[in-house]
Structures are given as structure tokens and as C-alpha cells.
Amino acid sequence: EGLQQVTIPLQEEGAAAANYKITLHFAKPPGSSAAGNRKFDVKLQGETVLKDVDLAQPAEGKRVPLVKTIPGIAVTDNLVVELVPAEENPAPQPQPILSGIPIERE
Hints:
The chain is mainly beta. The chain has strands at 5-9, 18-27, 39-44, 47-54, 66-75, 78-85, 97-100, 103-105. It has a four-stranded antiparallel sheet, with no helix packed on it. Strands 2, 5, 7 and 8 form a four-stranded antiparallel sheet that branches. The radius of gyration is 15 Å and the shape is elongated.
């Protein structure tokens, strides 16, 4: 099962929208399978911002976290981050580990 959605309060209710730069830090789960077997999409505020993320293929080698930065995300109150399996009925696999979410107001 694992993390599927997290909601982070950023602004008070009624505040004007502000843009944020969101950085997501992922770690490969222990026991993960081969590349392509555990892909997922990332949504911010309900919009897909990363498609087919595959933690079995880190850009810089083993034990190196995958870091993705998405600028210009408009937030009026809460930031909503969703991790969505790329397949409708994925095989049971270890879930992605979201180990950090630095957030900067732009």
C-alpha cells in the first residue's frame, strides 16, 4: 500500500494564490524489482507533473536518490502530492519512498 497522497498546509484560508517550487526526493525501496516493473506518476494539485517515474533506474547509480524539481506550482491553501501507479492493476511491488519535500515560495 504505502503513501498515495499527502496534503501539506502552506497558506492560510482565503490567502491569494502563490507559486511554489516543489522538490521531491525519492529513494528506491528495498527489494524493488527490475526496471519498468514499478512505474508511477506524480500529481501536484491534481495535475500530472511527472509521468512514468521508475526508481529502478536512478540517474547516477545504486543508492543514489532520485530528485525532481517542479517550479511554478500555484497553491491557495494546501499542497496536494499524489503518487499514482502508472498501471491500473500493478503487480504487488514495494511502494516508492518519498523521503523529502523541500518547498520554496517563488
